[in-house]
């Protein structure tokens, strides 16, 4: 078998085993046996089990990033309105849903990895999620006009919500369609983000507006917001 095809075969088998058994319960012997190759051949492709695992994770992460980038690219920089960000958020959520639909349980290698004790390994596993978060942060700040420090706090929440909804849909029989899931989650996320758009009014929570302005932080919305 050509080297490239053998490598692809090993990656597919490793992905299946790591998904079903977890990193710690799979050995290189298991992978070699399933692929019907000798261990020396396996080690010529991948010097260690961790290297093989991270290669599998990187491939899943690249798929997610490609889908998210495609969603963000539907509204390139230029003449955009703050509410164009809502369409982008919807596209990003749909990207998560479509990714999880296509990857199936192997999406857990990105979202629920059992290899997180080492900081360097954790950073590699979480690379895609961090990259998506940065893209969302840029959308909220550059397109929606949310203050940068606020966007930095909101973006991880939006990404986590999209991830949770997509994973829940995969595992819940009779769940909503991909389109409905994306629309519902985006509506939820936008309902929160909209409160931080320029000109948005602060909710009347019974606090003294003067002291609130004096102690304004990143969660308080734009500096020019008016109390309701």
UniProtKB/TrEMBL annotation:
DNA-binding region coordinates: 27-46
UniProt KW keywords: DNA-binding, Transcription, Transcription regulation
A UniProt-annotated Pfam family: TetR_N
Location of region: Disordered: 196-228
Keyword Transcription regulation (UniProt): yes
Gene Ontology biological-process entries: negative regulation of DNA-templated transcription
Domain of life (superkingdom): Bacteria
Residue ranges of domain HTH tetR-type in the record: 4-64
MF GO annotations: DNA-binding transcription factor activity; transcription cis-regulatory region binding
InterPro entries tied to this protein: DNA-bd_HTH_TetR-type_CS, Homeodomain-like_sf, HTH-type_TetR-like_transc_reg, HTH_TetR, Tet_transcr_reg_TetR-rel_C_sf
PANTHER family linked to this entry: HTH-TYPE TRANSCRIPTIONAL REGULATOR RUTR, TRANSCRIPTIONAL REGULATORY PROTEIN (PROBABLY ASNC-FAMILY)-RELATED
Protein name per its UniProtKB record: TetR family transcriptional regulator
Protein's organism: Cellulomonas pakistanensis
């Amino acid at each position: 078998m050509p080297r490239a095809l053998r490598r692809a075969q090993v990656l597919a088998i490793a992905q299946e085993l790591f998904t079903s058994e977890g990193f710690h319960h799979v050995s290189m012997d298991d992978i070699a046996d399933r692929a019907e190759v000798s261990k020396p051949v396996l080690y010529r492709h991948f010097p260690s089990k961790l290297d093989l695992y991270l290669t599998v994770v990187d491939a899943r992460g690249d798929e997610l990033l490609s889908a998210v980038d495609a969603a963000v690219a539907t509204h390139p920089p230029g003449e955009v309105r703050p509410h164009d960000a809502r369409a982008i958020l919807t596209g990003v959520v749909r990207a998560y849903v479509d990714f999880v639909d296509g990857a199936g349980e192997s999406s857990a290698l990105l979202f629920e990895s059992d290899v997180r004790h080492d900081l360097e390994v954790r950073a590699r596993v979480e690379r895609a999620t961090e990259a998506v978060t940065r893209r969302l942060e840029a959308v909220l700040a550059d397109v929606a006009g949310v203050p940068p420090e606020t966007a930095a706090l909101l973006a991880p929440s939006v990404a986590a919500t999209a991830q949770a909804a997509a994973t829940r849909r995969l595992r819940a029989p009779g769940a909503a369609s991909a389109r409905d899931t994306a629309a519902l989650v985006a509506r939820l996320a936008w309902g929160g983000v909209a409160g931080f758009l320029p000109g948005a009014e602060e909710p009347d929570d019974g606090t003294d507006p003067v002291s609130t302005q004096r102690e304004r932080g990143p969660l308080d919305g734009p500096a020019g917001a008016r109390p309701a």
